[in-house]
Structure formats: structure tokens, C-alpha cells
Specification:
The complex is a heterodimer of chains A (about 270) and B (about 290).
Chain A: H1 15-18, H2 21-35, H3 40-57, H4 62-69, H5 73-86, E1 92-96, E2 99-102, H6 103-129, H7 132-143, H8 153-183, H9 193-224, H10 243-266
Antiparallel strand pairs in A: 1-2
Helix pairs in contact in A: 2-6, 2-7, 2-10, 3-6, 3-10, 5-6, 7-8, 8-9
Chain B: E1 2-12, E2 20-31, E3 35-40, H1 46-50, E4 61-66, E5 69-71, H2 81-87, E6 88-91, H3 104-114, H4 119-132, H5 149-161, E7 167-171, H6 179-194, E8 199-203, H7 207-213, E9 216-221, E10 224-230, H8 231-236, H9 238-243, H10 250-260, H11 272-285
Parallel strand pairs in B: 3-8, 3-9, 6-7, 7-8
Antiparallel strand pairs in B: 1-2, 1-4, 4-5, 9-10
The chains are: A mainly alpha (about 270), B alpha/beta (about 290).
Chain lengths: ~270, ~290
């Protein structure tokens, strides 16, 4: 539980840390779109190089990115397995126990894994270099044009920031209740299926109760201080896009265009 | 038959750069049948220490021995943790948060059943412990979530007592209770200690409770045991208490103020009545 790296903010003072959160979110969007363009091996090598630069810019280590992927490993492995055996296109590459494995299957699977890898890298780059509060301010600003069609930008941002804020608290609470129930003989590892279910219930119900309690307390505390989501609010930190930020967004759009170009040139349909 | 800590070291996040040494080579023995208080500032390692007694935390170095059970850092050798946990009941801070069943009876028998007691025996035990904590059998069919905070805490404690532990570890059991509720709680623990022969280890910040109810004091500072002695010895060493910023219990503080005014009471006084009598004697002596 203590080793969850994915989504955690790493304090630092890199070029990416200093960047405007809105620029980072926009760049992330463009990069993710470019990942999902099937641009073949050249496209992915190109994106890979760009992302490596990103990791370098954020002053993170490659091993940290891999650590962030750890929880996803099982899913990736599963995807890999299913895809390799299910897709039946192209030429037969080789056979495993009389089961033919197709060329397309291997390539497709490879691309899926690469895409996931890149996705995690990009999101980790964003969350590791952006404070949760900045992130939500960024989201709020980016959503504000949609206010006209009734999107409650501020409320969404507030909900996200509260949710992010309470993740560590919830983990702490879970550990505490786990210990308390372990003292009452709960064993989450051993025992029959029925025992495991009741063990899980002994954890989830108290967690729910304390979460509701906490939510009510927080709501009262906010109301007591006159919080009203409909009111216009001023901010202590005012986000301001610098030239660097525009350049960064421009650069990410460029990457997207280049990837499209690669696709058109090498894989014209 | 006692709890022995040997060169116990515990480090949080040992593998990360943010590692924190919570306990540093703690040597301590808690004798059977005692009512010991563990005190010290927040962050001095009290809770970490007591959570080793039933292996909720595993030492990074050293070991904890509870009778035949030995808990060390070697995970494979730590067998029978469940039996150790039956023997050592731990009541957490705000234990009311561990309630989850829809009736109080079910919640109380949850622990004993986990430890292998059959349902009929567990229900008998529940009827016994609910009275022990000062409620009556009519509560057993009620929903625990409809009770007041103090009552919920009694139910949670009853849930621990129902497993019939020999050793009871209490982590700030009176936090958040009103003075009357706290007093009743402390009386309950004294009964368990004196009449039911349970060894009690209590983490607390309340010096009045330490002074009036405990017979041993373990003072923790920066992850080490700084002082381990009888309550009497502890509160007689005024210089030490002052150097450690310990809040003096009312009686000790009164004695200290009297001493400054020239009225010296040498004897260790435990009750207010006794203190009043002593003062009266001193005043008479000086005419």
C-alpha cells in the first residue's frame, strides 16, 4: 500500500514542474491522441523519443516510471496473452502446441502494450510534476468555456480536488481498520471463501461509515465558512501562461501532426 | 510469563528515502498482572511499540516475546499469529470505528468466532462481557450504529474482551470521552486488572489516569524507553518530570506548590483526602 507510485506528486524544480498546469494538460491530451494514431513502428519510436525527453525534462528516472507501471503489469500481461491467442489475421508466424500464432496478432499485441506504456508514462509525467491543487485549477480553467452549455466547471474541479486530497487519508484509515480487525482475528489471506467475504465486509463497512462521516463534517466545515459553489470566486494563485507554456503546447501539437504525417507517408490507406 | 522486547527496532518505509526510525533498540520487560502506562510525546513511538505486542507490526531488528510466542523480522518463523492475537487483545484509538455488524451481539461474537470459539459459547461470552462493560443484555439485539459515542466504544471493547485475552493493550482508550465516561472506563480496566487478572498496557496522555490507576510507567522519548519504573518512583522524581515537560498530576503539583511555600510533605500521597489530612497535620505542627 505504501508503494503506490502512480498518480503521486513528486516535489521538484524541473522545467515541467514550473510549467502552467493548463499547458501540461493540453499537451497530455495531444500526446495521448497521437498515441492512438496507428502510426506503426516509426511513429512509436518517434513518440518514445519525445517521451524520454519528457522524463528527462521532469528530472525523473526511468526506473520511477517503471515503478509506476507495476500495478498495471498484471493487466498488461493479461491483455498480451488474450490478444496473442485471439487475433487471427495475416500469416502464421509459428505454432505453440499446434495452436497457430499469427503475425498480425503479435504486432497488434505489441502495439497495445506500447500504447499502454506510453499512456502511463504521460499521465505519470503530468501527475508527478503537477500539484493536485494546480491540476484541478487547470481542469477548472480548461472546462470554463463549457460553462455556457451548463458544465459546472468549478464543482467538477472541487470534487476532483477533494477526492485527490482524501486518497492518503483513506489509505491511512484502511490500514488502521485492517489492523483493528486483524486484532479481532480477521485473516485476509487464509480461510475459506465465505470467511474472506466476511473479512472484507469487516473492512469495507467501517470504511464507508467513516467516509460518510468525514464527508458530512467536511461539508459542514465548508458551509460554515460560507462556501457557495455558485458564487464567483477569486484565487490566491493566478495561473498565467508564459511563452514557454505556449511553446510547449505548440510543440505537442507539432508532435501530433508529425505522427499523422508518419502515418500518411508510411501507411497510406 | 511476561512481555519482553529485545533490542526492538522499527523503521517505517525502510526501503524508501523517507524512512523514519520509530523505535531504536528498545529493551523492555512488562511483568504479568501489571497495569502499565506508556507515556511520552506524540511521535515518541508509543503506538508503534504496542502494535508489536500482537504482531500487527513486525520488527526490523530484534524481537518481541510473549510467553511462548516470539515475533522477529523473519516472516516464516512468525507462526501462530492468530493465537498470539487471541492472547493479546488490542483496543485501538477510537475503537468504535471497527464496528460493522448489524446487531451488537453479532459484532461482539465476531472476534471469538474468528479465534475458533463455537457460536453458543461465543453468545454466552457476549452476555458476560456486555455486563462487564456496564451495559445490559437488552443491548445485544440493538444496532450498534444507533448508540452514542461512549456506548459504541464500550461495545468495541466488549468485542475485544469476548475473545478472552490475557493481555489487554489500550491505545488512548479515553480519548474523546467526557470525564464521567472516562472515569467509568478506567474503573472497568482496573477491575479487569485486579479481579480478572489481566495484564494491561495503556498508552495515554492523561497523567491523572497514570497516577491513579497504573502501577508501572514506561516513559518513551524519541523512539527509546527513557524511564521504566513504578508509578510512585516516577512521580517522586519531580526534577525529571519537569525536565521532560510532563504535566504533573493534581496531587503532585499541589504538594510541589506547598513545598515552595515551606510546607513539606515527605510521604507519597495517593488520594485527595490523604493530602488534606497531611496538610492539616503540617499546619497544626507549625501552629
Amino acid at each position: 500500500m505504501d508503494n503506490i507510485v502512480f498518480g503521486r506528486y513528486i516535489s521538484g524544480d524541473s522545467a515541467l514542474h514550473r510549467m502552467d498546469p493548463r499547458a501540461k494538460i493540453l499537451a497530455m491530451l495531444f500526446l495521448i491522441i497521437s498515441i492512438f494514431i496507428p502510426s506503426g513502428i516509426f511513429g512509436y519510436v518517434f513518440i518514445g523519443i519525445i517521451l524520454l525527453d519528457g522524463v528527462f525534462l521532469a528530472k525523473l528516472s526511468i526506473s520511477y516510471i517503471f515503478k509506476a507501471m507495476k500495478p498495471m503489469m498484471f493487466m498488461m500481461f493479461f491483455l498480451l496473452l488474450v490478444n496473442v491467442f485471439v487475433i487471427r489475421n495475416g500469416d502464421v508466424l509459428f505454432t505453440v502446441f499446434d495452436y497457430p500464432i499469427y503475425e498480425k496478432a503479435v504486432f497488434q499485441t505489441f502495439y497495445i502494450v506500447i500504447r499502454l506504456l506510453f499512456m502511463i508514462t504521460i499521465t505519470t509525467l503530468l501527475t508527478a510534476t503537477t500539484k493536485p491543487l494546480e491540476l484541478t485549477l487547470g481542469i477548472e480553467d480548461l472546462l470554463s468555456p463549457f460553462k455556457r452549455i451548463g458544465v459546472p466547471a468549478h464543482i467538477i474541479a472541487m470534487m476532483i480536488s477533494i477526492a485527490l486530497r482524501y486518497i492518503p487519508t483513506l489509505i491511512e484509515e484502511t490500514q488502521r481498520i485492517m489492523k483493528a480487525q486483524a486484532s479481532r482475528g480477521v485473516d485476509l489471506e487464509e480461510g475459506s471463501f465465505k470467511e474472506k467475504i466476511s473479512a472484507l465486509l469487516s473492512l469495507i463497512i467501517p470504511l464507508f461509515i467513516s467516509s460518510f462521516q468525514r464527508a458530512e463534517d467536511l461539508a459542514s466545515a465548508m458551509e460554515a465558512r460560507g462556501y457557495d459553489p455558485e458564487k464567483k470566486r477569486t484565487r490566491y494563485h493566478i495561473l498565467k501562461m508564459q511563452n514557454m507554456d505556449y511553446l510547449f503546447v505548440f510543440f505537442s501539437i507539432l508532435v501530433l501532426l508529425l505522427v499523422i504525417l508518419i502515418k500518411v507517408v508510411f501507411y497510406a490507406i | 510469563m511476561s512481555i519482553i522486547f529485545e533490542r526492538l527496532t522499527h523503521i517505517y518505509d525502510a526501503s524508501l528515502t523517507t524512512s523514519q526510525v520509530a523505535l531504536h533498540e528498545v529493551d523492555l520487560e512488562v511483568m504479568d498482572g501489571t497495569f502499565s502506562a506508556i507515556i511520552g510525546e506524540t511521535g515518541s513511538g508509543k503506538t508503534t511499540l504496542v502494535q508489536h505486542i500482537n504482531a500487527l507490526l513486525i520488527p526490523n531488528e530484534g524481537c518481541v516475546k510473549v510467553d511462548e510466542f516470539v515475533v522477529t523480522k523473519k516472516k516464516k518463523e512468525n507462526k501462530n499469529l492468530k493465537m498470539l492475537r487471541k492472547k493479546v487483545g488490542v483496543v485501538f484509538q477510537f475503537p468504535e470505528y471497527q464496528l460493522f455488524e448489524e446487531t451488537i451481539l453479532k459484532d461482539i461474537i465476531f472476534g471469538p468466532k474468528n479465534f475458533g470459539m463455537n457460536e453458543a459459547d461465543a453468545i454466552e461470552k457476549a452476555k458476560e462481557v456486555i455486563q462487564l462493560v456496564g451495559l445490559d443484555e437488552s443491548y445485544l439485539e440493538k444496532n450498534p450504529f444507533n448508540l452514542s459515542g461512549g456506548q459504541k466504544r464500550r461495545i468495541a471493547i466488549a468485542g475485544i474482551l469476548a475473545a478472552d485475552p490475557d493481555i489487554l493493550v489500550l491505545d488512548e482508550p479515553t480519548a474523546g470521552l467526557d470525564p464521567q465516561g472516562a472515569k467509568e472506563m478506567m474503573t472497568l480496566f482496573t477491575t479487569l486488572n485486579k479481579d480478572h487478572n489481566k495484564t494491561i498496557i495503556m498508552v495515554t496522555h492523561d497523567m491523572e489516569h497514570v497516577f491513579h490507576y497504573c502501577d508501572h510507567v514506561v516513559f518513551m522519548k524519541d523512539g527509546k524507553v527513557d524511564k521504566n519504573c513504578s508509578t510512585k518512583q516516577f512521580f517522586e522524581d519531580i526534577e525529571y518530570l519537569k525536565s521532560m515537560d510532563v504535566k504533573l498530576p493534581f496531587i503532585i503539583e499541589t504538594k510541589e506548590l506547598l513545598r515552595k511555600k515551606g510546607i513539606v510533605i515527605e510521604e507519597y500521597v495517593e488520594t485527595i483526602e490523604e493530602l488534606v489530612n497531611r496538610i492539616q497535620n503540617e499546619v497544626k505542627k507549625h501552629g
